[in-house]
Design a protein that fits this description.
The chain is an alpha+beta fold and about 260 residues long. It is built from six helices and seven strands. The strands form two sheets. It has a four-stranded antiparallel sheet, covered by helices on one side. A three-stranded antiparallel sheet has the order 3-4-7, with helices on one face. α1 packs antiparallel against α2, α2 runs antiparallel to α3 and α3 crosses α6.
């Protein structure tokens, strides 16, 4: 386990507990109460994750844990074995955002590519299941390309979506004729021009195709209940929009 506590600015014992505090007015965000260190076994680099300091305008030490959409919480939780890697990744992502805001978007992109690999390594070292770890890595990597990659990054994400649709179409149409399975080969061929990112492109396309039917089932189960909640909130004078992220409470008016 390459996560360590910080003891007087130095690397201490193994991290036995993640000291985070839920923010009561913003229920899906947390503050890290004590810093910790991650030692990357691939490069032997040390990453220090600072604790949240009151009044810090940079928002260091603030996290939403694993940024999993609520609809996926039954498949991949926002917390668990992935919590420490997620807090580390949130910190590194904030640093990349600051770098991009300073005008170095290329440097931010390269940093995030390395940080995302570190995230994947840390997930596996925390014994997150292989498929889950790689899917989480693929999603954060796609978001990285979208944010920092410019037009090429947008094209990368759009191609992954189209590839997923082709894989789904191949699976459905194959019921009528197995020849339609040839459609599933197209995303693999189209991924080749991306070079080193071809594997990521293919994983995004195939992984999204596998998860899409599960998301539809999840939506079919959750949507009716959320609509009932919204109606009750509306009739009771509450906030109907708040039911779509049930862990978020807006109570700023109390301050």
């Amino acid at each position: 386990m390459p996560f360590f506590e910080m003891d007087d600015g130095a690397e201490g014992r193994y991290l036995e507990a993640l000291p985070i505090a839920q923010r009561p007015l913003d229920g899906y965000r947390f503050d890290l109460r004590a810093p910790f260190v991650y030692r990357d076994p691939v490069t032997e680099r040390r990453f220090v994750v600072p604790a949240r300091t009151r009044g810090d305008a940079r928002e260091l030490g603030r996290t939403d844990l694993a940024s999993v959409p609520p609809l996926l919480w039954s498949l991949i939780a926002s917390y668990g074995r992935q919590s420490a890697p997620a807090v580390l990744h949130d910190h590194r992502s904030r640093l990349a955002d600051e770098r991009a805001a300073a005008g170095d978007r290329r440097g931010a992109l390269l940093q995030r590519r390395d940080d995302d690999r570190v995230f994947r390594t840390a997930l596996r070292e925390q014994h997150v299941p292989l498929l889950r770890a790689w899917l989480m890595w693929a999603w954060v990597s796609a978001d990285r390309e979208r944010v920092f990659g410019g037009a090429a990054g947008i094209a990368f994400v759009v191609q992954a979506i189209v590839g997923a649709l082709l894989v789904l179409a191949a699976a459905v149409l194959a019921w009528w004729s197995p020849a339609w399975l040839g459609l599933a080969v197209l995303p693999a061929i189209a991924a080749l021009p991306w070079g080193r990112a071809a594997g990521l492109q293919l994983l995004l396309a195939c992984g999204s195709a596998v998860l899409a039917p599960l998301l539809v089932l999840q939506l079919a189960a959750v949507l009716p209940f959320r609509l009932i909640e919204a109606i009750v909130e509306l009739l009771s004078g509450g906030e109907p929009g708040g039911v779509w992220r049930p862990t978020l409470r807006r109570e700023a008016s109390r301050h």
